[in-house]
Amino acid sequence: MRRPIVLDATHLVTRLTRRATTGIDRVDLAYARYFTEHVPRAAAGTQYGLFRPHLLGAARMRSLIEHFEREQLEWDCSSRPEWQSVRARLLDQNPVLATRPASPRPFAWARVFTIQSGFRILHNLRASVPRNAIYLNVAQHAFEHHRFFRWLSRRPDVMPVFLIHDLLPLDFPEFFPQGYEFRFRRRVETMVRRARAIITTTAQVAQRIENEYRDRKLAPVPIHVEPLASPLEQAGEITEDDVDFVGRIRYFVAVSTIEPRKNHSLLIHVWRELIQRGIAVPKLVIVGRRGWESEQTCHELDLALDLQQHIIEVSSLPSAHLRKLIKNAHALLMPSFAEGCGLPIVEALSLGTPVVCSDIPVFHEVSQKKALLISPLDGTGWLKAIESLTAADSLLRAQLSAKTLEFKPLTWQAYFRNVEGFLGTL
Fold first, then answer.
1. Which of 22, 43, 212, 369 lies in the 20 to 30 Å Cα band around 107?
2. What is the pLDDT of residue 75?
3. Is 277 within 8 Å of 383 (Cβ atoms)?
4. Which residues of the chain have pLDDT under 70?
5. Per-residue pLDDT tens over the stretch 157-171
6. Is 304 helix (H, G, I), strand (E, B) or coil?
7. Quick check: helix, strand or coil at residue 192?
8. What is the dihedral of CA 266, 272, 273, 279, to 10 degrees?
9. How does strand 311-314 pair with strand 54-56?
């Protein structure tokens, strides 16, 4: 008999008041959909509590998913200001139109905060954590607060299973805010003290987790590697005329938070060089919120008039529109210095869009070597690749497009079948 699932929903509730949807958000939502809606076998949902977990019944979990989709605007919404602005910029209707989020409607934030507070406060007295349940936490959210997990010591029958996305702050502290490495080490403490099994997305991360156990002289726990499916697989197709134009415009897309680790500065330098050469410059659409220490990059995006004609910045888009944008791009660009997975690569290759990304081990694995891999320090190499891909009869684009046909994307159905197989062994 399969163990009942208790799914932690703390991260989804916390993210209700945020507009930009990250890769972790989308994976968390996929788990919630699967265990609560598609295959409803989650016995309860939980949120962190000081002395015991705060419990949500199945109906409340379904309500949370509905609110998350609505407030994050996952549903198709062609009238959303961000999309209208991207559309105008791609069509050169208003080349200096700002594409950062418009101010929310009056009291909109207060309404969402009230909804969020309700999920945090209301406790389902009928819900419980069944005996021999699997406590599944897939966002590694706030693991630094050990007190939220003390209840597990009182319930040795419950098996904690964590999805660990990466340990990058330990290996690349220079790419994270000051003091974050210390906080993340506390998160790793929770992982190694509490997890009795781990799911991760790449063999690279699995090896890094095994090294952490070995360095601490601890017996490793079972680790299951399951590559992620594309969250855009579940996004609907758009057929309206106002989005069909993207297939006729030369543009590239980069999907990631703007921060030093993502190396947007390289793309800005490449586009400056393209402008100086006076050739027909393609557009670059950057989809991602502004993160920490992005002031210099954002200063250039805000004030450089030459860049504003060619680089479009938008914090987030509904999934259906993001799918359309990636599908019709000349290529997805991802020059990151370090990553735990690189979900946009999976999204692009699954849609048949060529990918140019950093030559780092995890991208070899995630792309199944179907992308063009260039060092994140090789500005000249990136410039030549983008120039080649921009050409009308680009041989390189044809070659990379052919490689996408060899990419073997995992579906969410297959993903959860494999995850369920692993959970069934515990």
1. 22
2. 44
3. no
4. 1, 19-20, 72-81, 94-109, 235-247
5. 999 999 999 999 999
6. coil
7. helix
8. 130
9. unpaired
Q: Which amino acid is present at 400?
A: L
Identify the three-state secondary structure at position 421.
Answer: helix
Beta bridge partners of 134: 5, 159
Strand pairing report for 283-287 and 311-314: parallel
Cβ proximity of 320 and 148 under 8 Å: no
Q: Read out DSSP for 397-418?
A: HHHHHHHHHH--PPPHHHHHHH
Query: CA 423 to CA 151: how far, in whole Å?
Result: 21
Check if CATH label 3.40.50.2300 holds for domain 236-406: no
The C-alpha atoms of residue 373 and residue 356 are separated, in whole angstroms, by 6
Q: 43 is written with which tokens?
A: 């016995």
Residue 313 φ then ψ, to 5°? -115, 130
Nearest to 84 by CA among 68, 69, 70, 102: 102
Span 5-73+107-229+412-423 CATH architecture: 3-Layer(aba) Sandwich (3.40)
Within a 10 A sphere around the Cβ of 126, how many other Cβ atoms? Answer: 7
Residues 6+ apart with CB under 8 A from 50: 147, 148
Compute the Cα dihedral for 236, 241, 242, 244 and give only its sign: positive
d(CA 71, CA 6): 24
**Of residues 162, 132, 200, 165, the one with CA closest to residue 415:** 200
Secondary structure (H, E, C), 11-78:
HHHHHHHCCCCCHHHHHHHHHHHHHHHHCCCEEEEEECCCCCCEEECHHHHHHHHHHHHHHCCCCCCC
pLDDT at residue 161 in the model = 97
Nearest Cα to Cα of residue 293 among 268, 258, 244: 258
The pLDDT of residue 89 is 82
266 exposed, middle or buried (CB, 10 Å; 0-12, 13-18, 19+)? buried
In the block, residue with structure tokens 């997805």? 332
In whole angstroms, give the CA distance from residue 402 to residue 10.
42
Domain parsing of the chain, residue ranges? 5-73+107-229+412-423, 236-406
